[in-house]
Amino acid sequence: MTTLSQNLLDLSDFAWQRLRNRVEGMTDDEYFWEPFDGCWSVRETADGYAADWAWIPPAPPPFTTLAWRITHIADLLQAERTATWFGHEPAATDAALEVPGSAAAALAALDRAYDIWRRRLAALSQEDLDRPMGEIAGPYAESDGTSFALHILDELIHHGAEVGTVRDFYRGAHPEDPFAAALAGELTPTDRPALLAEAAAAQRWEVVPTLADLGFSVNEQTPDGATAAHLAAGTGSLDTLRFLVERGADLSLTDRQFNADVRGWAQWFKQADVAEYLATVRSAPETR
Known about the structure:
Elements: H1 4-23, H2 28-31, E1 42-45, E2 48-51, H3 66-78, H4 81-84, H5 103-122, H6 126-130, H7 145-173, H8 178-183, H9 195-201, H10 208-213, H11 228-235, H12 238-246, H13 262-268, H14 272-279
Antiparallel strand pairs: 1-2
Helix pairs in contact: 1-5, 1-7, 3-5, 3-7, 9-11, 11-12, 11-13
């Protein structure tokens, strides 16, 4: 039987991986993008960077940038209270967050903050989860550790969803066509190794063969761990899948969402024709 602690860890890891995948490839322009006047963001000061903040924010609250939202997530995950409210002490190495002033620094800060939070969550006993938090939690003194753990997970989940939505807004306001750039010779496999997988994710099947001819690997994976073969199998794009197999697609690779190989995707998404074809494929040819 799965314990409460393991269920909390599993939910945390799932929400975290979804967020981490959604911020992969973020640029500085995107990180600081302010689509409206009056946004709250992260701003450079004489002492580094600081996030806009007020005890009582304006009503309605201002739109917050990716920089602000990501800083907030990192801060709440590694805040001292995610140890002390459970009756534990922060590790000596759990220094306060330095507000990240670039997209790369933000991703590093997120990774570090999640490592701290996960370590603290994994250390909780059932007694820690059942016990009222007491005076240290102020108005939440009578709430138990489980309720506080769920609160932190709710913060991770709903702010993570906001981050994904802002990235969608940014992409819509700044359209790009990396596939056209690659076909024009402006983007190489070194520049963007997983471009062929991205083409499959976008269901741009017509560009997949040309990208393969240009040297883009058929076995690179999206942030979710899906290869072009996974995506072709799952969508029933049999002609593209045949091409990928001919070019050496590794059908044994597993994705991070379902932990399934290419055959598993065909079965999960009920692509009978694809599953029938894959049953005839004994092994992938040598990768080019």
